[in-house]
Design a protein that fits this description.
Layout (H helix, E strand, L loop, with lengths): L13 E2 L10 E3 L4 E4 L10 H8 L4 E4 L3 H7 L9 E4 L18 H15 L1 H13 L4 E4 L6 H12 L4 H9 L5 H11 L15 H15 L2 H7 L5 H12 E3 L4
Parallel strand pairs: 3-6, 4-5, 4-6
Antiparallel strand pairs: 1-3, 2-7
Helix pairs in contact: 3-8, 4-10, 5-6, 8-9
């Protein structure tokens, strides 16, 4: 299923709405929570910008390093938008330069665990904003896959979404990989990345990451409590009150 919203310059902009809880009683509201690749690719007075503004988004959370945002651009300023740069990745790593023998599952799952433990301050603030903002919100990184995928997995888990759906949501970046790679090659004078798995999103990555998080902390809720210092029940209840609605027919 392709959940992407149509943009010319954004290849991985998706609505997280519609995913249902295992009991079938609730689903995530549409038009409230979005994930994306870099919004720095948007330009005012273009159809893409008009399309973006039409979504009514009020808060943008940029998960990139500040130097990435400065180099590649931020979402254009607009009176309706609040912009927050919360860099959850503290140890930069260059995926594109990895050698072909590096398997994506173990390699990226280990990097994601580093982010989960290094970026606790920023992850905590991002979750607080998402839980307390009663208006459409989007969070993004560069490609909308790794840092964005981690935060999406955490939110979906706290909303009670089944793990298989969390993994499925992560893999949907595969639908954008070709376009994201084309952009990368354009920025790098037509060259290709050394790593053949660059910008791909195999399910093994998210499955291994969630298993590692559970092995180390016991559960997503325990990670929220032990690593982030938040009350998981309160956080989950706030997220559910803001983002869930009764499923059709309920």
């Amino acid at each position: 299923m392709d959940r992407r919203l149509p943009f010319e310059t954004l290849h991985n902009f998706r609505d997280l709405g519609g995913y249902g809880t295992p009991d079938g009683h609730h689903r995530i509201r549409t038009g409230r929570l979005f994930r994306s690749d870099s919004l720095g690719k948007l330009t005012p007075d273009t159809p893409d910008w008009d399309r973006f503004l039409s979504l009514g988004i009020r808060t943008v959370i940029d998960l990139r390093h500040p130097w990435e945002a400065d180099r590649a651009g931020r979402v254009p300023a607009h009176p309706s938008l609040t912009y927050r740069n919360l860099s959850i990745e503290h140890r930069y790593y260059d995926q594109s330069a990895q050698t072909p023998d590096v398997e994506p599952g173990p390699y990226l799952a280990e990097r994601y665990m580093e982010v989960a433990e290094d970026g606790t301050k920023e992850i905590r603030e991002a979750l607080r904003l998402i839980a307390e903002t009663d208006a459409p919100l989007v969070f993004h990184c560069a490609s909308g896959k790794d840092r964005t995928g981690q935060l999406a997995a955490l939110i979906l888990g706290l909303l009670g979404i089944d793990e298989d759906l969390i993994i499925e949501d992560y893999t949907l970046t595969e639908l954008a990989t070709t376009a994201l790679l084309a952009d990368w090659r354009t920025r790098h004078h037509g060259n290709s990345p050394t790593w053949p798995y660059y910008l791909s999103a195999p399910e093994s990555v998210m499955r291994l990451y969630l298993a590692a998080l559970t092995s180390r902390y016991g559960s997503t809720e325990s990670y929220v409590e032990k690593a982030l210092g938040l009350d998981p029940e309160t956080l989950s209840a706030t997220l559910r009150a803001n983002l869930l609605e009764p499923s059709a027919g309920r």
